[in-house]
Amino acid sequence: MKPTIVSSLLALACAGVATAHGGDLLNQGCRPIAKRSLDLQRRQLTQSGGEGQTVTAGGGASAARYSCDPNTCKLPKCHCADTNPPGGLDPKDVPQFIVFTADDAVQDYTINSVNQFLAQRKNPNGCTPVMSYYVSLNYTNYAQVTELYVNGNDVADHTMTHQEQPATNAEIDGNLITLNALAGIPYKSIIGYRAPFLNYSRANLEHLANTGFTYDSSSTASVPVTDPNTDAFWPYTLDNGMANDCSSVADICGGQPKLPGFWEIPMYAIFDQRGAAGAHLMDPWLDSSNASDVLSWMKNTFTDHYNGKRQPFGVYTHPIHLAKGYPGLTDPVDQINMLNEFLDWATTSADMQNVWIISNKQLMAWMQNPVPASQLNTLDAFKCQKPNAGHICNGFQENNDLLEHCISNTAGDALNNSPFYTCYGCPVTTPSPQQPNPPQKNNDKSVRTRIPANCDTAFWDPINARCTCNGSGCAFDDSTRPIGPNGSNLTSSGSSNTGSSSGSSPSASSDPYRTFGSGAGRTTSSSVFGWAASVVAAAVGGAMMVFI
Ligand SMILES: *[C@@H]1O[C@H](CO)[C@@H](O)[C@H](O)[C@H]1NC(C)=O
Ligand SMILES: *[C@@H]1O[C@H](CO)[C@@H](O)[C@H](O)[C@H]1NC(C)=O
Ligand SMILES: *[C@@H]1O[C@H](CO)[C@@H](O)[C@H](O)[C@H]1NC(C)=O
Ligand SMILES: *[C@@H]1O[C@H](CO)[C@@H](O)[C@H](O)[C@H]1NC(C)=O
Ligand SMILES: *[C@@H]1O[C@H](CO)[C@@H](O)[C@H](O)[C@H]1NC(C)=O
Ligand SMILES: *[C@@H]1O[C@H](CO)[C@@H](O)[C@H](O)[C@H]1NC(C)=O
Ligand SMILES: [Zn+2]
């Protein structure tokens, strides 16, 4: 890591925004980067300090005082931390996954940014890659979260307000409640968590497991896979505690915390020529002013994974840092081209086969059922299907004329900080950990009905309050997990949420970030997320669905 370069880039990025926009919108993008870089640095320093508690001699697992018996810890419910691929697979039969993740707000800039890298690509099965988006509330346009979800992406929890301290339960639960209420995502589909600034605690892991999340992905694998002491474990369940971050997070490792069936997906670092001393985690393109340098780090690290045990390779982004057209900032053209060059190289080189760009949710599906690369397309999580549910407000871009644009009448309400649209009825005020599901605003006297616990987003018509399809492909038995303290009654609301109705009509604000569609006929500049080209028609439960 080159701290001087990092901090100068950050100063530039934040200064530009502060000047142009009073510093509000990019808070979300600037501060997390600075913190994350420092945080990773701290971990590396601890390691090279060789205090003896770190992942050093004896191997990552034993240094973590980690032990796990693969004869009793078996898939799909249990998996030991291991550098070898799951299922006893030979590395040459294992797909080389590139896990693509994005963090923080979801808005035009971030969706467009991600689309630069993924929208034009196809995985080996012809499907457009999907990714994991760790969503926090501030500056997020919930209609675009719905869009991400119905297009197959892993929408995951990154807390509501993105604090520096390890999250409170209310920050984690509140984000879930808001994603369910205002982005219309079933609780059972939100399975992942990443801590703001990667700053998690043992209590966070315990809460996530108790709350029914499937995985956390906040920990770091910061020893190269070529090092015999690497901590680049394949994802593992916490039946036997954590095996990563043993020196940097309190009260974990040594068998703790024991959270049966709850998975940890380490974030796999990228290394420069210094090896373990030169680890880069999120947004590695911010760590050198020379994009060619970063490209070589990425290629070299990727090659080590591919030629070794094929642990996933991570592309961990804050999409705002790769966004074009952001007011006051120069487009990061070299970095954008570099990342596309890397992905082209990794996915199309003749001497590398079975390279897939995936989400962490797909990685979870494969870990629990680790088929050889040749059978990857048999897993539902890797298929691509577009349901044709007609003209209902369901997150597909062609139905955006049915969205509501939410504006608060209260001066200073954070709801007005950036465009906020939803299918599911505008809240009277911006959600908060104390009030994650505010009453529904009702200016035009119509009330939207929020998604019930037994219908999926693509099929739920919030205007007419019906599940437009009740076959096996869209309706499901309610497997809503309990969330909140003591697993209390905080499940999907289902029925209409009638709140106070406000007499005055909202006035359009002069918000400069409103690039999202505003009203009938306009579409967003956002989604180019596509679906596979193959067309399959299938009748599900009597309702016709077209798979494009
Ligand atoms: C997010 O917004 C809330 C107010 O809505 C604010 O208290 C909090 O500091 C914001 N977080 C960040 C990271 O800007
Ligand atoms: C992480 O949280 C701890 C409190 O547990 C705090 O002391 C530390 O400053 C935080 N780290 C970052 C990078 O914000
Ligand atoms: C950038 O790095 C590459 C090698 O990684 C080097 O060949 C090139 O000269 C560097 N460019 C600059 C401007 O330093
Ligand atoms: C399925 O939906 C159709 C039309 O919406 C409805 O007539 C039928 O009763 C539903 N079947 C079940 C089992 O809910
Ligand atoms: C959770 O349950 C415990 C024990 O039943 C109780 O003491 C506590 O008050 C409960 N907490 C909440 C927030 O309901
Ligand atoms: C669950 O929520 C419903 C609706 O808010 C309420 O009527 C019911 O009493 C709650 N049940 C429990 C056990 O808290
Ligand atoms: Zn973040």
TrEMBL record:
Residues 485-516 are annotated as: Disordered. InterPro entries: CE4 (IPR052740), Glyco_hydro/deAcase_b/a-brl (IPR011330). Residues 485-510 have a biased composition (Low complexity). It comes from the Eukaryota. Keywords: Signal. GO terms for biological process: carbohydrate metabolic process. Gene3D superfamilies: Glycoside hydrolase/deacetylase. Residues 1-20 form the signal peptide. SUPFAM superfamilies: Glycoside hydrolase/deacetylase. This is Candidate polysaccharide deacetylase. It comes from Pseudozyma hubeiensis (strain SY62).
